[in-house]
Amino acid sequence: MIGIESGLDAELERLAREDLYRTRRVVESAQGVELQCGGRKLINFCSNDYLGLANHPAVVKAFQDGAARYGVGSGSAHLICGHGRAHHALEEELAEFTGRDRALLFSTGYMANIGVISALTGRGDTVFEDRLNHASLLDGGLLSGARFKRYRHADAEGLLDSLSRTEGRAMIVTDGVFSMDGDLAPLDVLSQIAKDQDTCLMVDDAHGLGVIGDKGRGIVEHFGLTQQQVPILVGTLGKAFGTFGAFVAGSETLIETLIQKARTYIYTTALPPAVAEATRAALNILIEDQWRRENLNDLVRRFRRGAEQLGFPLMPSNSAIQPILIGDSRRAVEIGKRLLDDGFWVGAIRPPTVPQGSARLRVTFSALHDEQQVDRLLESLAKSISQ
Ligand code: PMP
Questions:
Q1: Distance 207 CA to ligand 1 centre (A)
Q2: Which reaction equation describes what this protein catalyses (predicted)?
Q3: For residue 268, what pLDDT is reported?
Q4: Which of 239, 366, 380, 384 is catalytic?
């Protein structure tokens, strides 16, 4: 036998050689469009805090009041004694916000996705997933024990073809806004296919909720679809909501099934109640502050106009996620470093997070950026890409 550790150093060296080594930077300040990092001020273009709520005074206050009232830890899983008033109220408010019968909190989006897919499908079933779905959805499909089929990105025809040749129960699973591309799933077509093929549709709208749709209700609002047409909706709270955690929203039967069967719901500690209180405050702001979505959309349009004029290879995205395709991993990392030298923090995303040969700069926007910051980013990008 050979110890597992024996190959680890060689594997780390390989990752470094291929420019795929991941590193972290320590942030010294609160989250926001300006971050303090390594003793320097950086303009943050890589966060998912799309509406600028992570450090909003009312959200911070709700968190502090929640901790003063309920303490920090929730003490146990929801099904033991961890399900508190704050969690319950948040679930009711999220159900109302999404226009669904009920909502159920999970501790993270990763756990929600694994929990839902593996609770609802198993051996003999088939899970169909978009090739570019988030890792947690792909892992959920793999862990479920169901047959696992991936279709070409947004290829509804290919999906239909494969689905119509499949026996037994099936489920279609898709990101709403694709996390590394920023484009929207063709949810209207997918929901029609699901209906025609008598199949269930699940959408993970982690990057759409709060941002897409007039009222910020995400991709389901954008396409004007109902709970019946998209029976399973997953939302995460660590992005536009600015807090932490996730939820699933759908019918009474769906939620009761998840409570009975989703292992990542049953066997894990409930979110701190103060996080639920902070999220309730964030939800109110997200609903009320229409200007945040408007600002965000204006900034995205301004960026795309400028980037097109400069000839950057943009992707077809109108969301807060605006990738610039670079291709080569080393080049993406180098450009990222040049941007950092100029005071801009943009994520350089490489395989296996994105397909081979499609490394990219993933620029993300916040409602709290201003036009000048966007213009300066464009200037720095032009300089860094042309070097
Ligand atoms: N779904 C998508 C589409 C995501 O991008 C992410 C995380 N970035 C998740 C789920 C996981 O959510 P969480 O961070 O709450 O685990």
A1: 8
A2: 6-carboxyhexanoyl-[ACP] + L-alanine + H(+) = (8S)-8-amino-7-oxononanoate + holo-[ACP] + CO2
A3: 98
A4: 239
Give CA–CA dist 323/346, Å, rounded: 10
Q: What angle do CA 75, 78, 80 make, to 5 degrees?
A: 70
Residues with Cβ within 8 Å of 97's Cβ and at least 6 positions away in sequence, in order, are 217, 283, 287
Name every residue whose Cβ is closer than 8 Å to that of residue 54 and which is 6 or more positions away in sequence: 30, 31, 32, 47, 242, 243
* Confidence band of 387 (pLDDT split at 50, 70, 90): confident
**0.90 surpassed by complex ipTM:** yes
| CATH of span 20-51+290-386 | 3.90.1150.10
- 127 is written with which tokens? 């899970």
- In the numeric block, the tokens 């209207």 are attached to 188
Q: What b/e string do you get for 354-367 counting C-beta neighbours within 10 Å, with b at 16 or more?
A: beeebbbbbbbbbb
Binding residues for pyridoxal 5'-phosphate: 109-110, 179, 207, 236
Mean pLDDT of the chain: 97
Domain with CATH 3.40.640.10 in the chain: 57-288
- The per-residue pLDDT for range 262-284, each reduced to its tens digit, is 999 999 999 999 999 999 999 99
Q: Kindly report the pTM of this predicted structure.
A: 0.96
CATH of the domain spanning 57-288, picked from 3.40.640.10, 1.10.443.10, 3.40.50.720, 3.10.170.10: 3.40.640.10
Per annotation, catalytic residue among 207, 222, 366, 380: 207
Using alpha carbons, select from 224, 147, 165, 154 the residue that is nearest to residue 190: 154
